[in-house]
Structures are given as C-alpha cells and as structure tokens.
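[stage:ingest] chain + small molecule (nicotinamide-adenine-dinucleotide)
[stage:ingest] validated
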Amino acid sequence: MKDRKVVIIGTGFVGATIGYTLLVKESVREIVLIDIDKDKAEGEAMDIGHGVPFVRPMQVYAGEYRDCKDADIIILAAGAAQKPGESRTDLLSRNASVFKSILQEVMRYCPKEVLLLAVTNPVDILTYITLKITGLSPVRVIGSGTVLDTARLRARLSEHTHIDARNIHAYVLGEHGDSEVTAWHSAMIAGLPIGEFCNRCGQCSGASLEEIRQSVKNAAYEIVEKKGATYYAVSLAAERIVRALGGGENSILTVSGLCDGEYDIRDVCLSIPRAIGSHGIARSVEIPLSDGEIAALRRGADRLRQLARQIGY
Ligand code: NAD
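[stage:predict] done
[stage:export] tokens:
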C-alpha cells in the first residue's frame, strides 16, 4: 500500500483534506493534485507537501491528467458542493457534466487496472455514471457511499452508550443521502443486539435510536448550515478506503458499488457492506435486514435509478 500513487481530482475542501489525510496517515508514496483551478491545486500541493519532513518520504505535487498514466487509485472529488438547504441530488446535473469532462481525460491516460474512488455528490449516481462512462469493471469503480454515514452513526452511538466506537457494529446502507437506511436489525455491541444492550446498560444517554438516526441523516445539512462545508470525517473515510484498497485486508466497508441482485436490487450503485481488497470490491455481504429495511433500501434504489435515467444514464 505504501508504494501506491494516488491522484486526487478536485482540490477544494474535500480533495485537499483527503490529500492532507493521506500524508498524515503515511498511506501512500505519491500524491498528485489536479484541479481546473491550477493555482488552487499548486497552492494546496505546496502547503501539504511542506509537511513531508514530519512524516515518511513522499512526493506531493500539482499535476496534469497525463500523471494518471501510472496511477493506482484516482479519487474524484471535483464539482459543486451543497449550499445551505440544498440536497445532494440537487447537485446532480452540474456534477454529472463535471464528471463527464474529467473522465474523458482520465481514460486517455490511466491504466485499465486503475481503481476509481468517487466522493463528489450525489456520490451513488456519480459512481454509476463513472461505471457507464469508463466501462471499467464494477469491482474497480467505488463510491465513498455511506462509509461516512456509518462512521457518524457509530460516533453517535458511542456518545450514547459510552462504548468505544470501534466496538460498535452498525451500518448505514443505501443512498449517501436522504433515503439512507439505518440497519438497526443487525446493529450489535459486544455481540448483543443494540436494543438489548441499551436495555441492560442503564447508562445510555436519553436519546432514542430514532433521534440518533435522524441526527446522522441530517448531519451534513447541519454542518453545512453552521460552517459551510464538511471535509474532515469524509477525508478520514476516503483514507480508510484507500488503505483497504492497498492492504489486501478484505475490510468490510459500506462503499457504494454496482448492485447485482443483492436484496434483489440491480443496475444501480448504492452502499451495502462490501469486503474491500487490493483489486477493489472483493464481495458484497448481505447482512440480515428487517422487511421494512429491505423495502426502504429498494425504494431508495428505485429513486437513484430513476434520477440516473432522467439525465440519460
Ligand atoms: P469545493 O467547492 O471546495 O471544491 C470543488 C473543487 O472542484 C474546486 O476546487 C473546483 O475548482 C474543482 N472543480 C470543479 N470543476 C472541475 C473540473 N471540471 N475539473 C477539475 N476540478 C474541478 O467543494 P468541496 O467542499 O471540496 O466538495 C466537493 C464534493 O464533495 C461536493 O460534491 C460535495 O458535496 C462532496 N462531498 C462528499 C462527501 C461524501 O461523503 N461523499 C462528503 C462531503 C462532501
């Protein structure tokens, strides 16, 4: 993993912070930053690169699309971000055309074994569009999906139960957006279903699980309202995916990818737990869900598919 070359396209709040996070975590060998605004990419590369003496030797520079020629992973973080009150799907047509122009350039140079990681919103539909435009294998085209929402859920449940978030196994599935599904049916702490854990523990905060679900779903709206953008936790999520892609760890992450019959859902990208290895998505894991959760997942899938069709994909 530490020998990998990563190209980040789009060096706004999210792309630049992903670059910084990859540097701090010493995750890769080479980080290339590309943006339509060359000065921005150059400024970020200088600022991040000046930190190299504090970590292990690494190359950080602003580049061109031809630098994709020997890239291992290309991270797509370019495009418009949510403004206060905007939903992720409001960004669709603008960011679909940004992706189309970027992917035409990327595909001129990148090796066919490259791994593409989409982060720009609406990330599920843009992951699907990336698959369609590039024709790459679905195992190699990944969206950051609900890895962030799953982290937000675990962070909130950790505050609620006073248990280390790493010992909380709970997932957010489906769309990274308004139709996301919290998989309470299979949520566990220390081998106990979450409801049972809370009943036994007696130390949980007063919040209900429904309040926690709502706060996770609305977290981005609240952060954008308060500070204008979200970028720290998503960058840690992207770094976690990059590390899984390099390590052959088969870590389970709720990345977005093409569904091929899981929960009877097809021809749409959304998040379910997937094992991530060095070649991309190694396999999907169909965890037990309640009938209501499956129905919600399918409704979300239909909506995402419909939105993609509306813009011609
Ligand atoms: P930003 O406005 O700060 O940065 C976007 C960058 O993209 C800018 O630097 C811009 O110059 C660049 N860009 C635009 N068009 C381009 C093109 N054709 N080629 C190259 N670069 C181009 O936005 P941000 O806050 O960094 O957010 C970026 C995206 O990430 C948004 O869509 C946002 O919604 C999304 N996001 C996703 C998650 C997630 O969990 N998936 C979380 C937070 C934000």
